[in-house]
Specification:
The protein is mainly alpha-helical. The protein contains 12 helices and 5 strands. It binds tryptophan.
């Protein structure tokens, strides 16, 4: 029996921040040895809202380099770029034709993003979830690590699988039904300027997040200015103190200490004592990632070779699934 397969991806839009790292990639790193993993840079998703052609390629390399810098290990995992495997687009077309329009117009993320785009909503934004379904289904993934905001997309993927198998594959199922891999509690990182909102790439203020590549000066400045409260003594899980909970959680995750240890250590602290401690811990935790990232980015030949062999491995599996899907749909396959 082979290991179960995991697939996940990150869009190359701007740099990764602590929320992406602590909420997603660090968990991938922790579980990777138990699975056969495919980690994709989803550059086709990145153009579903207006994008900058001048930075797309470099942002794509940057995400791949950050995967490596964060500890994705090529012994267990394959890193590749979505647009390098044409099967993603092709399966998307085939699945488009069996996906009811209202499944897509009802998606929460589509509705939220469409409002932001105003008059100029592209068809690609509507189709985003079908492309994501194709990412997952091409690799017959068993498990998909997703955060809360992506659960609906995984549900849609499952609906598409059931519909496809029902219509075209009565006897044997051609597409595998994927399961979400829900991460452990405590890894939801909130904004530095509002403890009730998720830390996000799309927040207009860079002060709201710590990017993995921020310099020590930037990290010091952001933590110094981040939102706190006037209460003395720091504690977890006080619903009235979302910022306090978030900053303690960050300290816990970045220091590697347990919740109990942090709760005891910080119980009598004021912000003036805690903030420099958090800043120093953050800087030290990010330093090895930043150094590794720089090393990889300085060796483009190495990064290209990683992505080339990633593409080869990914493509072999993706093409096999695509052929099965086309056969099930009745296509005359090329001989
Ligand atoms: N939509 C995901 C996000 O924004 C990114 C993504 C694209 C993805 N394809 C995927 C995640 C496949 C998991 C599996 O976070």
């Amino acid at each position: 029996m082979g290991r179960q397969r995991v697939l996940s991806g990150v869009q190359p839009t701007g740099n990764l921040h602590l929320g992406n790292y602590l909420g997603a990639i660090r968990n991938w790193v922790e579980i990777q040895s138990q699975y056969e993993n495919f980690f994709c840079v989803v550059d086709l998703h990145a153009i579903t809202v207006p994008h900058n052609p001048a930075t797309l390629a470099n942002d794509t390399y940057a995400i791949a380099a950050l995967y490596l810098a964060c500890g994705i290990d090529l012994q267990h995992s394959t890193i590749f770029v979505q647009s390098h495997v044409p099967a993603h687009c092709e399966l998307t077309w085939l699945l488009n034709c069996i996906t009811p329009l209202n499944w897509l117009t009802d998606m929460i993320q589509f509705k939220e993003k469409a409002v932001k785009q105003g008059e100029n909503v592209g068809v690609g934004l509507l189709d985003y979830p079908v492309l994501m379904a194709s990412d997952i289904l091409l690799y017959q993934a068993d498990k998909v690590p997703v955060g809360e905001d992506q659960k609906q997309h995984l549900e849609l993927t499952r609906d598409i699988v059931n519909r496809f198998n029902h219509q075209f594959a009565k006897d044997e199922s051609v597409l595998k039904l994927p399961e979400p891999l829900i991460r452990k509690e405590g890894a939801r990182v909130m904004s530095l300027t509002d403890g009730t909102k998720k830390m996000s790439k799309s927040d207009p203020s860079d002060m709201s997040r710590i990017n993995l590549l921020d310099s020590p000066e930037e990290i010091n400045k952001k933590i110094k200015r981040c939102k706190t409260d006037p209460v003395r003594g720091l504690a977890f899980d006080d619903a009235e103190r979302p910022e306090c909970n978030n900053l303690l959680t960050l300290y816990m995750l970045l220091s590697g200490k347990t919740k109990e240890e942090v709760a005891t250590e910080c119980a009598d602290m004021g912000w003036g004592q805690f903030k420099p401690l958090l800043a120093e811990t953050t800087i030290n935790a990010l330093k090895p990632i930043q150094e590794k990232y720089q090393g990889v980015m300085d060796d483009k030949g190495y990064l290209e070779s990683v992505l080339r062999s990633g593409r080869e491995k990914a493509e072999a599996i993706a093409n096999e699934t695509l052929t099965q899907v086309k056969a099930a749909m009745g296509y005359a396959l090329p001989l």
